[in-house]
Amino acid sequence: MSDLNTATTSSALMKTYQRLPLTILKGKGSYVWDDQDVKYLDYTAGIATCSLGHVPDQVQAKLKEQLDDLWHVSNLYQIPQQEALAEKIVSVSCFDQAFFCNSGAEANEAAIKLAKKYAKDHQKPERTEIVTFSNSFHGRTGSTMAATAQTKIHNGFTPITPGFTYLPFNQMEAIEQIDTEKTAGVLLELVQGEGGVHPADAAWVQALDTYCKEADILLMVDEIQTGMGRTGTLFAYEQYDIEPDAITLAKGLGSGFPIGALAAKNKAADSFSPGTHGSTFGGNPLAATAGLATLDQIADTAFLQDVQEKSILLTEALNELVENNTLVKEVRGKGFLIGLEVTNKAGTWVEKLREKQILVLTAGDHVVRILPPLTTDKEELFTFIGVLTAIAAEL
Ligand SMILES: Cc1ncc(COP(=O)(O)O)c(C=O)c1O
C-alpha cells in the first residue's frame, strides 16, 4: 500500500466532484479497502468500469507482462495489441472496424465526427446535425456535453456547441420529427444510465433503426455504460434485434485502464481515412492489452449466462422490496445496470449502505444505481439484498 497523504480537508484539486469522505487504497474482486483498512462491498464497480472486479488476475498478469516490454508507441507504427483488440471486437459484434481513444467522451466525439464525414462523403453536405434524446448523457467535452440533452449539464457553458437536436426519448412521434434534410446521425443510449436508468422500448428502437436505414442516417449506440456485458449480453444492441452502424465503448473495456473505442460497419468506418481523426494515446500497447484481456473474459457465453442468472436473482429480490416497502417504487434496468426508484432521497440509501460497508451510487435524486461487478457471486448478492432489506425496514 502506498504512503500517500489521505487527508481530505484541503486539496489542490479543482472542485469538479463532490467527493465523499472515503479514501480507497486497495481493491480485489468485489471489495475495496479504505485508509483505515475497512472493507467495503463495491457495487459501483468504478461506475460500471471494473466489471471483472478490482485488479482481476488475468488482466493484471497481461498488464504486468506488457509493462516489462513496451508502454507506448505512437499510432504511426503497427501496434499488434491494438490490431488484436480490434479483431476481437469485430469477431464478437456486427462491426468491421474499430478506432481507439482514451475515454467515453472521446469515443462519442469520434462517432459524431464520423457521422458528419459520412454525410459529406455521400453527397449530403447539408446533413450536419446529430439527434440525441431527452435525459441522455454522452460526456463532458464541448461536443458531447452539447450531445447530452440535459440543461443542468449545459448550465454555465453557453454558447453550447451547435449541431445537436434533442428529441423525446422512447416516443414514437419523435422518430417522425427527425429532419432527414439536416441529420447526419442519431446517437442514443439503450439504457440511459446517468439519466436515471431508463431502458429504451424495443419497438421504438426498432422503428428508429428502420427510419435511419431508410433515410441513410447513421444510427450510433452509446454503449459506454451498457456495453461489455453490463446488461447481460456483450452489447445491449443484441437485445434489441438491431444492427446499428456504430457503437461507442469505454468504461468496462479496460477493467479500469483508460481506453475508449468506436466500432463501426465498413459502410460508415470507411469515411475515416488517414489524417481525418487520431489520438496520441488511443489504443497504445498497455491500453490495448487491458482491453483484450478484459474482452477475452467477458465475451464468453458461459460468463454472460452467469451474469444473466445473477441479475435475475437480484432483480427478483429488489422487486420483492417494491412489493413490501412503500419507499421503494420501481426497479428498472437490464442485467447488472439496475436503478431502484425510491420516494425519498436516493442519497439517504447510499449513505445508509455505506455505513454498512456497501457502496452504491445515485442516478438523479430518486434513483439508487446498483452496478455490481459482473463477477460478483451469489453470496455477495445475498449479503447486499439482506442489508438493503434491513435498511428499507429501518427507514
Ligand atoms: C452513456 C455514457 N456516455 C458517455 C460517458 C462519458 O464517458 P467518460 O466519462 O469516459 O468520458 C458516460 C460516462 O458516464 C456514459 O455513461
From TrEMBL:
PANTHER family linked: ACETYLORNITHINE AMINOTRANSFERASE, MITOCHONDRIAL, AMINOTRANSFERASE CLASS III
InterPro entries according to UniProt: AcOrn/SuccOrn_fam, Aminotrans_3, Aminotrans_3_PPA_site, Class-III_PLP-dep_AT, PyrdxlP-dep_Trfase, PyrdxlP-dep_Trfase_major, PyrdxlP-dep_Trfase_small
Signal peptide start and end residues: none
Protein name: Acetylornithine aminotransferase
Additional information: May also have succinyldiaminopimelate aminotransferase activity, thus carrying out the corresponding step in lysine biosynthesis.
Top class in the EC scheme: transferase
Entry's cofactor comment: Binds 1 pyridoxal phosphate per subunit.
Cellular location(s): Cytoplasm
Main location as per UniProt: cytoplasm
Residues annotated for pyridoxal 5'-phosphate binding in this entry: 104-105, 137, 222-225, 280
Record carries keyword Amino-acid biosynthesis: yes
Cofactor(s) needed: pyridoxal 5'-phosphate
Pfam families membership: Aminotran_3 (PF00202)
Pathway: Amino-acid biosynthesis; L-arginine biosynthesis; N(2)-acetyl-L-ornithine from L-glutamate: step 4/4
Species this protein is from: Oceanobacillus locisalsi
Binding site for N(2)-acetyl-L-ornithine: 140, 279
UniProt-recorded Gene Ontology molecular function terms: N2-acetyl-L-ornithine:2-oxoglutarate 5-aminotransferase activity
Known catalytic reactions: N(2)-acetyl-L-ornithine + 2-oxoglutarate = N-acetyl-L-glutamate 5-semialdehyde + L-glutamate
CDD domains: OAT_like
Positions bearing N6-(pyridoxal phosphate)lysine: 251
